[in-house]
Amino acid sequence: MKLLISNDDGVFALGIRTLADTLALSGHDVTVVCPDRERSATGHGLTLHDPIRAEVVTSIFHPTVKAWSCSGTPSDCVKLALGALLDKPPDFVLSGINHGSNLGTDVLYSGTVSAAMEGVIEGIPGIAFSLTSFASKDFQPAAKFATILMAKLAKQPLAELMLLNINVPPVKWEEIAGVAITRQGIRRYFDTFQKRVDPRGKTYYWLAGEAVEEVEQPDNPHLPSHIETDVHAIRKNYITVTPLQYNLTSAAGVHSLQDWGFDLDK
Q1: Residue 53 lies in a domain
Q2: Is-contact 244 158, C-beta < 8 A?
Q3: Using an 8 Å Cβ cutoff, are 69 and 54 in contact?
Q4: How far is 265 from 40, CA to CA, in rounded Å?
Q5: What letter would DSSP give residue 84?
Q6: How many CB atoms within 10 Å of residue 89?
Q7: Fewest CB atoms less than 10 Å from the CB: which of 150, 201, 258, 265?
Q8: 238-244 and 178-181 as β-strands: parallel, antiparallel, unpaired?
Q9: 109, exposed or middle or buried, with CB in 10 Å at 0-12, 13-18, 19+?
Q10: pLDDT one-digit tens code per residue, 36-55
Q11: DSSP characters for 108-158?
C-alpha cells in the first residue's frame, strides 16, 4: 500500500525511523513528511503567518523511503504532503511511533494524533501509533504490530472513514496480553506552573503537569458496557485500538437543547 507517515517527535526520532523502515521492508510504498524538530503537544496547530519549508532527506531512512523534513507542525506536514509533495493520495496516513502514550484526553493535545486526523479530514483513513513510555526505546513491538495491522487492513478494509489510535505497552512482544478494541478514557493532570526568574530578572513560568489515575466516567450508551477504556486496558499490557472521529457533536446535547424552547420575541 501507499503510506504517508508523519510524527511530532521530529525527523531524527527513532520511532518514525523504526516505523517507516519496517513498513518499507514489508513491501509498502512509504513516504515520510515530518517536522524538522520536536513538535509535541502542538495539537492541530497550523502555520499561517510564516512560510513552510520542506527539504529532501536522504540519509536517515531505508533507501526506498522518500522523505522530507518540514519546518511546520505535524498537521502542516500532512497538509503539505497531500497538497504539494505527493503525486497521488496515499491509502493511509500514519503517525508515530510516538515516544510516550496518547491515551484518553491526551488525544486532544497530541500532535501525533492530529497528524493522522489530518488525513481523515481529507478523506484518508489515519492511524496513530504510540509507545506508552518515555523511558523505553524499544519501538520494534509497535512496528511489528503496525505490519500486522496493515496486512489485516489490506484484506479487511475499515467499514467507514476513521482514525485508529494505537497505544502499545512498553514490554517485550511475548509479554503483550493481546489486542483490545477500546473507548477513549479520561486522564486528568495536576497542572502546576513553576515560577522562575531569567538572568535578566524577568519572571517566566514552566508547565510541569503530572498525570493522575484515570477518572471514572459514565458508560457510553452507544457502546456495549464491556468495552474498556484505553487507559484501563493498557495497564494490563494490551495493545489498545481506539477508533476516533473529528466530529465532536454531542448527540445527547442536540436532543436536550432542542427542548429548551428559546423565545426571542422582544
Answers
A1: yes
A2: no
A3: yes
A4: 49
A5: I
A6: 15
A7: 265
A8: parallel
A9: middle
A10: 998 887 888 888 999 999 99
A11: GT-HHHHHHHHHHHTT--EEEEEES-SS----HHHHHHHHHHHHHHHHS--
Question: How many other C-beta atoms are found inside a 10 Å radius of the C-beta of residue 2?
Answer: 14
The residue range of the domain holding 76 is 2-184+223-255
Structural Rg of the chain based on CA atoms = 20
Rounded Cα distance between 108 and 113, Å, is: 8
* Cβ-proximal residues to 79 (8 Å cutoff; 6+ apart), any chain: 46, 118
Residues 99, 140 contacting (CB under 8 angstroms): no
Contact 146, 19 (CB under 8 A): yes
Cβ within 8 Å of residue 25, ≥6 positions away: 62
In a domain, 196, yes or no: no
pLDDT above 80 for 212: no
- The model's pLDDT over 90-116, given as tens digits with 9 standing for 90+, comes to 999 999 999 999 999 889 999 999 999
Residue 164 lies in a domain: yes
Among 102, 98, 109, which residue's Cα sits nearest to residue 142?
Answer: 98
Domain count, the chain: 1
Residue 220 reports pLDDT greater than 80: no
pLDDT at 216 over 80: no
User: What is the tally of helices (H) and strands (E) in the chain?
Assistant: 6, 13
Residue 214 lies in a domain: no
Global pTM reads 0.91
Which helix H or strand E contains 160, and what residues bound it?
none
Residue 215 has pLDDT above 60, yes or no: no
Q: Angle 14-25/140-155 helices, nearest 10 degrees?
A: 40
CATH code, 156: 3.40.1210.10
Residue with cell 497538509: 79
